[in-house]
Amino acid sequence: MKRLVKLGMGFFSFETAWRTLEGYEAMNMLRKGQIHFDDLQGEKSHGLLGFGAYSQAKLANVMFTYDLPRRLEGTGITVNAVGPFFVGTNFGVSNGGTFGTCMRCVMRFAQTPADAARTAIRLASAPEMQNATGKFYSNEREIRSSKLSHNVAIQTRLWEVSEKLTQAPVTI
Q1: Which residues does 88 contact at the CB level (< 8 Å), separation at least 6?
Q2: CATH number of the domain residue 157 falls in
Q3: Per-residue pLDDT tens for 10-55?
Q4: SS (H, E, C) 38-75
Q5: For this structure, is 54 an active site residue?
Q6: Residues 24, 54, 66, 137: which is the catalytic one?
């Protein structure tokens, strides 16, 4: 029996090798995201209601997930991004006004949390997925994220700048 443990970087499955999955939502936000190196911490305005900053954060998460397998090469740890996307978590349904009303309406069409978890569970536990790494999955299949998310030079720069910002260099 495998155990899934939630750690800071994601879910780890302990067996013969470790697997980590990073979960992301809102693929349209990811596709529209840009990395603003002059404003990685979102101190400036980037779009309506902060969606630009949200998109940047989602893109950065995926870029870290694509960069991490290169850093973990030879360790037996695999890393993949998981996009459950629209999940009925009751987010915003108790809000008043137009936003709350809209959320109550659209949540009826969202997938259940159990359905959304299937891809992550499969990646963490299925024997045929044990060597899958550096990919993005949704609805139990591999999907392609934005062209920008695959830019290795930006991934590397983002990692290095993040280490400086957090004052926490990562040694693997």
Answers
A1: 107, 108, 110, 111, 112, 113
A2: 3.40.50.720
A3: 444 444 344 555 544 445 445 567 788 887 777 776 665 567 777 7
A4: HHCCCCCCCCHHHHHHHHHHHHHHHHHHHHHHHHCCCC
A5: yes
A6: 54
